[in-house]
Amino acid sequence: MAQKPSIPKGTRDFGQLEMARRNYIFDTIRSVFALYGFQQIETPAMENLSTLMGKYGEEGDKLLFRIQNSGEKAALAPEKGLRYDLTVPFARYVVQHREEITFPFKRFQIQPVWRADRPQKGRYREFYQCDVDVIGSDSLIGELELIQIVEEVYRRLGIRVCLHINNRKILAGIAEVIGAPDKIVDITVAIDKLDKIGIDAVNAELRERGLSDEAVSALQPLLNLSGSSAEKLTALRTILAGSETGLRGIEEMEEIFELVNSQRSTSINSQPSTFNLELDLCLARGLNYYTGAIFEVKALDAQIGSITGGGRYDNLTGIFGLPNVSGVGISFGADRIYDVLTELNLFPTSLQSATQILFAAFGPDELRYALTWAKSLRANGVAAEVYPEPAKMKKQMGYADARQIPFVAIVGGDEMAQQKVMLKNMATGEQQLVSLDQLNEKIRK
Amino acid sequence: MAQKPSIPKGTRDFGQLEMARRNYIFDTIRSVFALYGFQQIETPAMENLSTLMGKYGEEGDKLLFRIQNSGEKAALAPEKGLRYDLTVPFARYVVQHREEITFPFKRFQIQPVWRADRPQKGRYREFYQCDVDVIGSDSLIGELELIQIVEEVYRRLGIRVCLHINNRKILAGIAEVIGAPDKIVDITVAIDKLDKIGIDAVNAELRERGLSDEAVSALQPLLNLSGSSAEKLTALRTILAGSETGLRGIEEMEEIFELVNSQRSTSINSQPSTFNLELDLCLARGLNYYTGAIFEVKALDAQIGSITGGGRYDNLTGIFGLPNVSGVGISFGADRIYDVLTELNLFPTSLQSATQILFAAFGPDELRYALTWAKSLRANGVAAEVYPEPAKMKKQMGYADARQIPFVAIVGGDEMAQQKVMLKNMATGEQQLVSLDQLNEKIRK
Fold it and tell me: Is residue B432 domain-shared with residue B290, that is, in the same domain?
């Protein structure tokens, strides 16, 4: 009885081309992380529900995938759930392993997460996150390095980006000076939607959330400050003069800009700038645990929202009993980066086929001969396949075509007698009789 | 309120050194797969329970982790479960995507699987599998390439191994000639335990499973055939003369040995042999879907059981409605390979620290200076860290020590004035004042 196979909604299979492209993204990110000394860790797919519950708000709790207990406890309430993000497991990891960890702890983590969200275009129930954090230091060098990492990753991927930066302390200062210091969360949640719903809807939401008309009015010029980032910061200094927190936020921003600029203008190996860094007072990021700088990266040439984001937090591990550990981190959105690279046609064509050459043999003796040649190429690091049967040449060439293998080495009796193969360039159709040395030479360049 | 954080039993966190070592294993395997043109795919962690149920026997069904439905359907019986292995999802993948796949399909897959097994030493509820298969061809070139892959992977890892090989058709032939043709499954299940429980217990089990005393007696000399693999095959030819299936199995084995030997003795780039290939008539592998060659790899210098295994199957996809697709595959046991490399002290020491150099600055100006130098090194591909604060030198050196970073560049006012740094080799304690060019030179070699 045949079952019609399928996969759960909101999940995906990744075929070889998608995998090659996803690996290209992850390998690029990973290699940049490594240059800065970030170390990879992995945590289990399952966490205890007590670790996960209450960390993502009421809505988040509902989106946790719960795992039925096994054995005798099957009827009882689930005790385990699938990882919902990499942040909470990371906080749990830091607290659990704090005796073994050398701080500042620079870690990255690339693993799937699961959310019982309603599946829709671009939203999946299983997707990869790619987080990088430095924890256990409040030095703004952390922010600098993450900014440099963003610049370098997108330079390598060929995506032009703008890195929007803001500071929670500035937002808190704004809440103070407009007379709504207790509304900082409401303000950030509302203005976080500015891009999506527009200023009028944001203002309506602010009023709904209990801001007075005066406070909303006072907020408007702040959201509309113009000029360069430096000019905005100067203007803010006056406006936030009455808020100690706000002024501290401005100082942090000034130092970050100064650090980034001094490193970019340095004469040693200055690279062409492929990205802009911009103070964006409308950037809020809804998550409550941010306490300092917040980041969001947008591609300049694609309309797709944020492709990387993060910020500074002062108490991520407090929920697990380790207070006052400051850290800063960002998360790369692999699915969106994939979409941008696809839209802009930026994936290297070499990802189409890892195999560089297929040997196609006319008969069993030729097949043996081909195996020997393939072995020699592989010993030189060349990815080589041998069609496993002396099938019709049309079938073998069709295989090379479908797999987009750039070269085919055809082996018949004549070629074998001459200790050669007929090398066909699949793009140009060109054919050439070559020796093994010539073949090695040709393929490697 | 502090919660004491922990992870579900049978699961593991992987810290940076474990990750570096695991990545070393996976990268080694992956790079060999790539040389042979195998392509990576990934399937979702969750599969429909209908895909998984009934594929692993009654015992297996019990070990599936079931995922509670979300939303309104929460009270109903679960519809999804976590992947139990990579074989069934692969069969499902092949059937579901058969229109897009170019056959023969050479795929590999490296992903975690989950089993609600009782956790014990060396047995986990979450662990990685690493499977490689070629499907859609019955050519024995498939067996050859997998054998070559095993040889090359273990050569690169430095592990001396013996590859035990047998054939299900030979086992079927044996069942025939001892007069118990319907007992082939019972015979394979029982003799599969020979290594663990010994010949007497195996014989007892065979009788329990309904084999007559005569059949058990007739089986003994076959399990004890001596001599080289070729000699055993010759002896078998006589014994199995009455079994067509058995003779076909012998032919397959002879061809595989001949293929492997002809490729090994070839004059082109013959590599020193680091492994033995051996016909092992006691090798059965309990899984029922094998129909031809079966493999198992054991490390010669560690007592740890099989570290790689697999075989030929003729109907893996039949359960999903696509019959008669022949394939052959093997699975590398990453956890056991890890244990062998640890036991034999074979992990490269370079895995201890990815970071090659730490900059340790005496003050804020020195820190800026160090950032510029680090940037230059990174542009040359050197993994460099800058301690993010001008902390006490002891603390910064302690960080380098704990992280096992091989070089520290110390920056004080004097060094800065001379446009140099004091380079300390952490292994030897040697110190040397160097320019940026000299540093680049020293670190890269």
Answer: no
Mention every residue, 6+ apart, whose C-beta is less than 8 A from residue A272: none
Listing DSSP states for B25-86 in one string gives HHHHHHHHHHHTT-EE-B--SEEEHHHHTTSSHHHHHHTPPEEPPPGGGGGSPP-EEE---S
- Domain end, chosen from B303, B324, B343, is at B343
pLDDT of residue A176: 93
- How far apart, in whole angstroms, are the C-alpha atoms of residue B367 and residue B315? 64
For residue B292, list its beta bridge partners: none
Return d(Cα B362, Cα B360) in angstroms, integer.
7
pTM of full prediction above 0.90: yes
Taking only the tens place, the pLDDT of each residue in A329-348 is 999 999 999 999 999 999 99
Beta bridge partners of B14: A42
User: Tell me, what's the ipTM?
Assistant: 0.93
Q: Give the pLDDT confidence score for residue A269 in this predicted structure.
A: 47
Residue B207 DSSP SS3: helix
Report the residue of B38, B68, B401 to disrupt the A interface, i.e. the one with the largest count of A CBs within 10 Å.
B68
Facing B3 at nearest CB: one of A66, A102, A320: A320
Q: Which residues of chain A does B7 touch, with a Cβ-Cβ cutoff of 8 Å?
A: 43-44, 46-48, 51, 92, 96
Q: Which residue carries 């929202």 as its tokens?
A: A305
- Domain co-membership, A383 together with A309: no
Residues of chain B with pLDDT under 50: 1, 267-269
Asked if B35 and A381 count as a contact pair (C-beta separation under 8 A), the reply is: yes
* Interchain pair B46, A320: CB under 8 A: no
- Is the domain of B376 the same as that of B299? no
One-letter amino acid identity for B282?
C
**B283 and B422 housed in the same domain:** no
- Express each pLDDT in B159-172 by its tens digit: 999 999 999 999 99
Q: Residue B416: give its domain's CATH number.
A: 3.40.50.800
Read out DSSP for A194-250? HHHHHHHHHHHHHHHTT--HHHHHHHHHHHT--S-HHHHHHHHHHHTTT-HHHHHHH
Q: Into how many domains does chain A fold?
A: 2
What CATH number should be reported for the domain holding residue B151? 3.30.930.10
User: What is the per-residue pLDDT for A265?
Assistant: 63
**Hey, what are A257's tokens?**
């800009």
Closest CA to B222 of B311, B134, B282, B283: B282
Q: What pLDDT is recorded for position B273?
A: 58
Q: What is the mean pLDDT of chain A?
A: 92
Rounded-to-integer distance, Cα A3 and Cα B319, Å: 7
Q: Reduced to 3 states, what is the DSSP secondary structure of residue B257?
A: helix
